């Protein structure tokens, strides 16, 4: 019986560089080299070399205090991810943000995480909630994650889905939208509607807010219109 070919070793350097980008995306502000080194569990000199390479490519940059944040080059790279989906979603995200006065965003599934692909804040709101593109969290948390799970067969759900969460996802599938409160960020609420674009995985259009004058049903109805428009623009 032939022996299976060994799996090529992963690049530790590349993996660490990607991890730095993930840490910076998850942090809601710049980080120092020491903070990054600590979270990577590497010596400061190793973190410094990794950051210099990322900086040379414009993927990270330093603020006035020398702390590290994501670079502008990442925006150009991100714009190329599911470009057609982002292009069709942007007018709808903008319209929902304007109609409801809350931040509206598009989320997609990435392995067992829910990732924000694009986001629009309301133009005239005071202190709108920020939802940065690239933000990720487990698909088992938050309205967009539950909405996306409602489109997947149970066999594809992560092992971390509890009986209580399974019931929430089933309810979301029945009514066509999911909700959350205090699940990803304390004090924030979210409503999300799932949809599928032909040839792509499941996605969700969602809003996040502290408070709203609209009911969850009203918000979901508005999101459903936009989800339908995006799906139809991309050929169903």
Helix content: 40-55%
User: Measured on Cα atoms, how large is the radius of gyration?
Assistant: 19 Å
Give the neighbour order of strands across the main sheet. 5-4-3-8-7-6
Strand count: 8
Apparent shape:
globular
What structural class is derived from the secondary structure elements?
alpha+beta
Largest sheet: 6 strands, antiparallel
Question: Poorly predicted ranges (pLDDT <50, ≥5 residues)?
Answer: none
> Helical stretch count?
8
Strand content: 15-25%
Mean pLDDT: 89
State the distance separating the first and last CA atoms.
46 Å
Helix-strand pattern: HHHEEHHEEEHHEEEH
Folded structure, characterized:
- The termini are far apart.
- This protein has 236 residues and is an alpha+beta fold.
- The chain has helices at 12-26, 33-40, 44-56, 73-79, 83-100, 143-149, 163-175, 216-233, and strands at residues 60-62, 68-70, 103-110, 113-120, 136-138, 178-181, 189-196, 202-209.
- The strands form two sheets. The chain has a six-stranded antiparallel sheet with strand order 5-4-3-8-7-6. A two-stranded antiparallel ribbon has the order 1-2.
């Amino acid at each position: 019986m032939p022996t299976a070919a060994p799996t090529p070793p992963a690049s530790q350097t590349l993996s660490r560089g990607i991890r730095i980008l993930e840490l910076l995306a998850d942090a809601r502000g710049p980080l120092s080299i020491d903070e990054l080194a600590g979270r990577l569990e590497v010596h400061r000199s190793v973190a410094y070399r990794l950051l210099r390479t990322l900086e040379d490519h414009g993927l990270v940059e330093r603020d006035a205090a020398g702390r590290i944040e994501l670079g502008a080059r990442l925006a150009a790279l991100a714009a190329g991810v599911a470009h057609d989906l982002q292009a069709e979603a942007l007018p709808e995200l903008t319209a929902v943000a304007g109609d409801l006065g809350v931040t509206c965003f598009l989320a997609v599934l990435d392995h067992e995480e829910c990732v924000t692909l694009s986001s629009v804040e309301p133009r005239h709101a005071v202190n709108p909630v920020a939802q940065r593109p690239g933000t990720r969290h487990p698909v088992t948390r938050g309205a967009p994650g539950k909405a996306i799970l409602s489109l997947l067969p149970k066999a594809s759900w992560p092992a971390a889905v509890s009986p209580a969460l399974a019931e929430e996802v089933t309810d979301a599938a029945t009514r066509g939208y999911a909700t959350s409160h205090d699940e990803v960020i304390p004090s924030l609420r979210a409503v999300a509607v799932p949809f599928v674009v032909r040839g792509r995985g499941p996605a969700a259009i969602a809003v996040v807010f502290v408070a709203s004058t609209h009911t969850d049903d009203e918000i979901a109805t508005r999101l459903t219109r936009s989800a339908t428009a995006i799906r139809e623009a991309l050929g169903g």
